[in-house]
Amino acid sequence: MYLILLPILFPILSGAILLIFFRTSLKGNEKAKRKTLVIISGSLLVITALLTITALLTAKESFTLFYLTETLPITFAIDATGTLFSLLAVIVMLCAGFFSFAYMKHEDHESRYYGYYLLVFGVLNALCFAGNLITFYLFFELLTLSSMPLVLHNGSKEAVMAGLKYLFYSLCGAYAALFGIYFIYRNSTTLTFTAGGVLNPSTVAEHGSFLLLVAFVMILGFGVKAGMFPMHAWLPTAHPVAPAPASAVLSAVIVKAGVLAIIRIVYYIFGANFLRGSWMQTAWICLTLITIFMGSMLAYREPVLKKRLAYSTVSQLSYILFGLAVMNDTSLTGGLLHVLAHGFIKAVLFLCAGAIIYTTGKTRVDELRGIGKEMPLTIWCYTIVSLGLIGIPPTGGFISKWYLATGSLKSGLPILDVLGPVILLVSALLTAGYLLPVTIQGFFPGADYDYGKLEKQEPSKLMTVPILIMTVLSVLIGLFPNLITDYLTAIVSAVL
Amino acid sequence: MGPNLLANYGEAVSAILFCIGFTNLLLQTNLIKKIIGLNIMDSAIYLFLAEKGYIAGRVAPIVVNGVTSTEAYINPIPSGLVLTGIVVSVSVTALMLSLTIRLYTRYHTLDLDEISTQLKKEGR
Amino acid sequence: MNFICNFPFFSILLSLFSGTVCSMLPAKAAKVVNRVVIITVGILSAILLLYLLSTGEPFVYWMGHFPAPWGNEIRAGVLEAGMALFFCIIMYLSMAGGAHKLYGEVVESKHNLYYILVNLLLCSLLALVYTNDMFTAYVFVEINTISACGLIMIRQVGRTIEAAVRYMIMSLLGSGLLLFGLCIMYDLTGHLLMSNIKESVSLLVANGEYQIPLIVSVALMCVGLCIKSALFPFHAWLPDAYGYSTVSSAAILSSLVSKGYIFLLIKIIYRVIGFDIFNSTRIIDVLFVFGLMGMIFGSISAIRENDIRRMIAFSSVAQIGYIYMGFGMGTQAGMVASIFHILSHAATKSLLFIAAIGLTDVSNGSRKFIDLTGAAYRNKWAGAAFMAGSLSMVGVPLFSGFISKLLFSQAAVQVEGKMLASLIVLGISTVLNAIYFMKTVIRIYTPVKESSYSGITFREMKGYAVVLVCFIVLNVILGVSSQPVVNMIEQGLAMFA
Amino acid sequence: MSKKRPAAEYQKTFAFHFFRWLSGVKDPYLDEVEMHPQKEFQMDPEAVLRHEKEHDAILDKVYDPQRNMEMKLFRKLYHATSIIFCLFLIALLLVTISWLPATGTIDRPANNEVAKRYIEKGLEETGAVNIVAGMILDYRAFDTLGESHVLFTATITVLILLRLNKTEKDEAEISDRRFEPKNDAILQLVATFLVPIIIIFGIYIILNGHLGPGGGFSGGAVIGAGLVLYLNAFGFKKTERFFTEKTYKWVCFFSLSFYCLAKSYSFYTGANQLHSVIPKGTPGAILSSGLILPLNIAVGLVVACTIYAFYAMFRKGGF
Amino acid sequence: MIILTILIPFIAGGLVPLLPFRKRWQMEVFLETAVVANSILVWYLLFHHSDSTFLLAHFTGDLNISFRVDGMSMVFAGLVSALWPFATLYAFEYMTKEKNENVFFLFYTLTYGVTLGIAFAANLLTMYFFYELLTLVTVPLVMHTLTREAVLASRKYLYYSLGGAAFAFIGLIMVIVYGSTTDFILGGVFDPERIAGHTNVLLLIYVMAFMGFGVKAAVCPFNSWLPQAGVAPTPVTALLHAVAVVKAGAFAIIRLTYYSFGTDFLKGTWAQDVVMVIVMFTIVYGCSRAVKETHIKRRLAYSTISNLSYILFGAVIMTPLGLVGALSHLVFHAVMKITSFFCAGAIMHQTDRHYVHELDGLGYKMPCIFGIFTISAFALMGVPGLAGFVSKWNLAEAAVESGNPLAWGGIACLLVSALLTAIYMLSMMVRAFFPGKDFDYNTVSDVKDPNWKMLLPLFVFTIFIIGFGLFSQPVVNFFSDVAKGNV
């Protein structure tokens, strides 16, 4: 019963304690201090992960914590969708967490970072477990607030500005969503997530067209978090300045919160049947397609690696949203699959970029000639997941894109059913164009490259192991997709 | 226009005189001219009253030979009003003149506007 | 006939005679006589008021051996007696409050002349209040005008004399128009006594005779009195006259002289023309419009003023606008409001003038706002009194200004066509009032760091402080227990008819 | 083919800003959030003083009609409207007059019972042959009482305005001697003849006020004129022998007091329906018509003195 | 009893300059005792009130000064009396740096009485009377520092308030003339027969009166006095310009709308649309100005402007639910805003810093203050679980429920405003906690949290904020009872 609370409260409380007390209570020399901190945070992280998995396995019924007002309960429940996202979160958070123990050596205020990291973990769990819209909204806002310090962690002017930008964009989205919640509250039977929607049929008849607008506003709002055009601009600002593991978490998990939010409202509140075929769906698909293309283009032009990856995230997330927007079983399966695939892949990419920055301090792509010779393991991982993201079989990316494309074709939407796959294809080419240069230059620096300067400087185990683990996972998705697609089909068939 | 304009030619003249006086009092900047305007205005009213009291073919209301019949005399009331009015007019004229003297000895001009300009310059 | 019925006559004659007597007396004695006369007249009026309230019937009093259409008459009702009493109170307080300034501003040898003028002014006011004869009214209007002119220029600086000239010019224009209107009225009715004229007028109206001359005559009289009471476009003389004359004069002029004319106008409206006939003419609309304009423009001029006395003077323009707005509504309620405002404004405005002089005295005699900074700390009583007066002007509850505003608004609501205009202008005018009065209040309550001015203690100005307190009390009485006063006004107006 | 634009120009275009926003480089709104501090509001007290002084100076200029066009315009407008107003007034009055009852006719409202009674009973009730005198001094005596006090008030104001102090008086006397005629032989000779005649005539008018045309005011004015002539001929030195401010005061005081008291008595008895002890006398006789004769005398004295006083005041601010 | 609650502050305040206090603490104890006693009395009264009206004085005719306790009074009086003792405690500490304390506390305490007078007023005239009085007793407080700026500010405050009252007065007159009574009766007092044919005029007058009372509630375009009045000492700004005075304006509008003109008369008319548009504009306008403002207190003042219009927005929805929203925001915003103002005041008191850009790095030096400040910021933004969310939720629900498309637009305004709130509040927090990479902590080394007199009120208020956020149901239930007229 209370088990479901543990993965939420434990990291939040421990994070808060870390934040409040760790600054002053630690005495002793710097190194010992840091060691203690890392050990404590690491153990807390692992405990949290364990608690989460326990909760996922055992807790089945919903649990209402208390009532905000008589009609607004704070409820937690675990369902299949939540489990999916939660698993992704746990894995990425763990890996990135361990990566950061190494990475954060060259940053200040480590305890603050870990404190907020744990907070984010807890909030993410809560978000996945949220049983109704109000709970979801509460933790959605908290997620923004608690993850902002991760973005602006290094404290430079740009970082602070980027943090604020992230904050305000997200809040803007959250408030747009809140706008919708107000209306949904009136026009639905309950706010509890229920597969197939909770709209009150009588009011739907009355305010149907307005509710479509409301849905659109909500999707736009939650879409901010998911980097959907036109409110994507925070992503390329926030990612380059955040510490690499934070970027990884941000890009792999936190933005997925936006995806989760959209899944929740589209499939669990409004219901796909209500939205399918409306102008709203068309507009949404258009937006996603624009985002896909634009993100790829921008990434292609971008010289700074982390920023390039950020644009890539913009583009890739809209793959997922595209899948959601098409609203048939195939595309939805593809979208959900891409959640996992992109999560792992993008985490790896960012961690690799972090490793590169950590060891060489190079940030621009054109500086990375010969990097493959210096840190081959990292770049190999990079290359493998890049291929996945491009969608070359048999990687996870390929399968999800396949599902997306076929889903689109089968949807029967005019024009868009063909346009979608075309843009996906173009985007895939562009993806290749912006990801592979690193590999190519890294391994084949050209004839005039001075091999004499080259020295092998593979990063520490603490960095490479998380990268490796996730690379393997992403490959596994591609190799054994059926395991996952079966699971996803269960979800899809429930909601459609 | 009513029927009695020609019959009331005396009143008409007095009205025109009244307005002439009125305008002079209002517009002339020279104080003496203003006072003249004032007197014209007052006199116009006396003329008006005198005309009003007049009844054709009758004499002033001073009892002659003990005849106390209404048919003999004109209306005495306007005459009485005129008498009172004259005194008032004299008083006011005297007051205005003395004010003028006072202002003249101080500012050496009779122009009221000029006086106020001077005042405002020295005043603030 | 009850002996008390002689009281109006006694009051008029007493003040008239005291004027003559004062010409033979030295200044000190004249002052005593003046005070005694005002108090006596006040007491007489009070007794008369009580008597009238108890009988509830107005009475006429022959001036001579002959009754109504032939001889002069005066008439006393509740409103008349109340006005007389009120005028006496205000006049006494104004004289007492400004007495100490007289020594500085007027040559010693002319003091007795000053008291003569005050006595004559009182006499003329009483006569205006009590008279039942139009021509008598005209004569006493002239006395009023001349003595007011004398009060203005008793302090002989260039400004006051110029102001006196301007005042005289406007007044004479007004008198001329009044007299002309009177003559036409006489020609139409053949009467000079108010009640007789009224009968004839109603007859004429009923018969439809002489419509145009009648209206023109009424209009001429109204315009004449409006000019004399400084209604908005005719107010050019007012700021200098009120602003630079000696303070008692300013207080009396602003609160009594113009009010005397206005009261006469009320009498003309009620007792000569008849309220309903007056209201059926377009004249009330004109009065209404000019009243509203006066409210706005008077206040705007006051805001732009940099001199406290002139500011208060401009405020009078606005307040007279209020009164005419009440007339312009053409209802009984509007009239009651106007009369109440006559009282409230008289009580407030003289308070303000007298308080202002206390403030300027402790600021080296400067009247500019910049020098008045912190004056309220140097002369606490004057500061408090000025604040009370300002609050009343702005219309804060507890003070009389609030009640008159209330009455005006209530009256306005009942007049369909003029409601919005009057309400909105009332609102705006209150805002403007607030701006310039509160600006001053804040200014005088802002302390200055190093003060080169000397303060004044209570000991040095006992009499002055008492006067101020009396004024404030009067104001608050009017503000708190206004119902009896309003009842009295209504009763008085009923007696007019 | 599009031409390549210089960078500076390009940076001003909308497309540039839009692209910057699109690629997340700079947000047009949010990046303005972190602002530079505003300057704190401070008003220099000296500046305030200066400002107010300047304001005053400007006001001075504003009041100068030569320099202020607005004022000039206002003046012109004022004159124009005044003339229009005057013409309007003329028209109005003419229209009014055209509607008034015709002059000289009998059947007018003004010729009503009031006038009738004055004429028919005036002689009997007041004892005055001159009905107008009877009317103003008995029927409507209150007006007349007021009227004489108008004159009194005017004198007081003239006194206030023009009466001089001791020192000023001396100066005025010197300048008076310099500018005014004196010891003019012709004038003195004529005056010697005329002044007594004028004064006697004046006295006659006063005394006959209730019997024929005339009365206190006109007689007094005539006497005053005689006195003025005398003064002009012989100068202040001579007149001061019999007429000083004190004389004036006492004369005025006694006359007006008498007037007041007498009329008070009359009013009081009238109003209270008491019997008045004053005898009416035989109509037509010099000693008749009750109080009218004494009142005429009192008024005559006052007016004579006042006329003289006005002249003296105007001339040199004293007697 | 009612009159006693109004009189005690008057007497206590009046005694402050008169009694010969030797030491400062004596005065503090005296005043605090009086205020606390009065608050207890008020609360006692709230729980044991009778429905009878207490008549104090007759003005003219049937116009009188009388007092009564009804639901609205309970809300407002309860709020004021709960906050005042704490605010006084805070003021003791804050005012140690200022001069003329006696005068300050005199008027400070007088204001308490006057505010209660507004709360307990039984009819429109009484409320108007105390409303005017409130202006007058608070002007000396604004003017307290006597700088030129303060004088100008108080002048402006005075003009605006009195001018507004003048227009509100017109509304009063309308109620006197067209209403059956001036007493407050839920649902309005207009006599349907008398108002027949005057509807449009009455609506116009309503708009005017709304704007008139709205001056105190800082409705655009009459809001500029409020930021300027921020020159007053912080207890004044906090208590008066975030709670008592401005809330009195909002309170007066609610009284006018629900208890005098009546919602039946107003709902669905153009007047409602007009005022709603004005209010919506103010919501957004206030926030935008706050974002642009760099002076902390002025920024908070602009925030107040916006938040007051939330209340008014609830009020002009003109449904019981709207009233619930308005009331809840009335109470919750009071708590939130007083907290943030007190934090700002504490910062200014401890560090003498007045501008946002000076806050760098103070966060860790004054953890209590900034912690509380952050919580209040979150509450103002409407983070669920804190007080602000509940009131916004109620407001939005009322708007949705009303079915008025304009009100739906109002929700959008609320949310835009929430976003802007986040911007202006959080940019301060970010500055304080994350001062930047090369920030020199030595510049703030001597900064520390203030003493208990300042912190105690803040902690209490924080508990209120969280408490209201989590367990708002009883309070909201009470509000709905009030809105339905069950109290």
Number of strands of chain E: 2
What does the average pLDDT of chain E come to? 83
Category by helix and strand content of chain E: mainly alpha
The share of residues in helices of chain D is: over 70%
Rounded to an integer in angstroms, the radius of gyration calculated over CA atoms of chain E is 21 Å
Span between N and C termini of chain D? 109 Å
Structure commentary:
The complex is a heteropentamer of chains A (496), B (124), C (497), D (319) and E (487). With 496 residues, chain A is an all-alpha fold. Chain A is built from 19 helices and 2 strands. In chain A, 77% of the residues lie in helices and 2% in strands. A two-stranded antiparallel sheet of chain A has the order 1-2. Chain A is globular. With 124 residues, chain B is an all-alpha fold. Chain B has a single domain, classed as Helix Hairpins, CATH 1.10.287. Chain B is built from 4 helices and no strands. The N and C termini of chain B lie far apart (52 Å). With 487 residues, chain E is mainly alpha-helical. The longest helix of chain E is centred in the C-terminal third of the chain and has 32 residues. Chains in contact: A-D, A-E, B-C, B-D, C-D, C-E, D-E. At the C-D interface, helix 1, strand 1, helix 4, helix 5 and helix 6 of C face helix 3, helix 4, helix 5, helix 7 and helix 11 of D.
Quick rundown:
The complex is a heteropentamer of chains A (496), B (124), C (497), D (319) and E (487). Chain B is mostly helical.
